[in-house]
Amino acid sequence: MAIETTTMPKIERLPAFAGILREQENFANEDDVGLTADINSSFDRLVLQSGVEMSPSMLTLLCLSLGLVMGGSFFVMTDNLLLGAIGAGIGAILPIVFTAVIRSQRQKLIMEQMPPMVDELARAAKTGRSLEQCMELVAHDTPAPLGSELRLCVKKLAMGIGLPQALEELPRRTGIVSMNVFTMALTVHQQTGGDLVTVMDRLARTIRDRISFLGRLRAATAASRAASLLMIGLPPAIVTFFAWRDPNYFNDLFASPWGRTMTLVAIALQIIGAALVLRILRTTSRS
């Protein structure tokens, strides 16, 4: 027998409560299309899935500030405009790189926490509790970061929101493919019924098999990924070495129109190639 879920009406904003409402800061809009929209959406997901207590606008300000500091420092030490621009670019990218590393570590930890969490959910279901009660129990016992996401879903359930709507944002907030399977399994069970214990046991085995497969895949492609990262980092290292060895190297290079053109083309191609390589590495290592 299917269980009907109640869709909560949209909460209207009232001027009397404007002071306690927290604005949701996102760069991407639902109506935007094109490359700019894709970049804004990726940036919003990066901040959201990393779990850092920072808005996208604050991270952008941090990138600009660090870029100005490093660019100014490079220019003051070398009196070279090109090195100052390179330093500004490096400083602007560093916060994004650190945020991406934090997101990767967080997703890896969540992926490791999922099989024990699903096993505990199956054990809680064996006691005869409802699915909502099982979710509350598991969310209380699961440590962060997965426990924090589950407790957010439990708070939505306590407000009267249906289970499908409460779990709707969970895959997007974590950025994990296996979380889509988890939310879909719970949503289908909520709507159609069935043996929750068997479903959770099979889901736990599936997630463990996926973790094992991803581990073997990373081990098999370790050399290729290392070579790709070396290709990204080697050109800037060579440029830095030449600039350190001969401070007038770039002045002589930019004295020629041909040298200026080729240098700018090389920088543009390096940025495009690094973006494509990192995108490929990100796609092949999704958990």
| Distance from first to last alpha carbon | 34 Å
For this structure, the CATH topology of the domain at 113-219 is Receptor-associated Protein
Tell me the β content.
Answer: under 5%
CATH class of the domain at 113-219: Mainly Alpha
**SSE string, helices as H and strands as E:** HHHHHHHHHHHH
Radius of gyration: 24 Å
Question: Helical segment tally?
Answer: 12
Contiguous uncertain segments of 5+ residues: 1-6
Helical proportion?
over 70%
Structure commentary:
This protein is mostly helical and 287 residues long. Among the domains are: 113-219, Type II secretion system (T2SS), domain F (Receptor-associated Protein, Up-down Bundle), CATH 1.20.81; 221-287. Helices cover 76% and strands 0% of the residues. It has 12 helices and no strands. It has helices at residues 35-50, 56-78, 81-126, 131-141, 146-158, 163-166, 170-174, 177-192, 196-220, 222-245, 249-254, 257-284. Helix 3 crosses helix 4, helix 3 packs antiparallel against helix 9 and helix 8 (177-192) packs antiparallel against helix 9. The longest helix is centred in the middle third of the chain and has 46 residues, at 81-126.
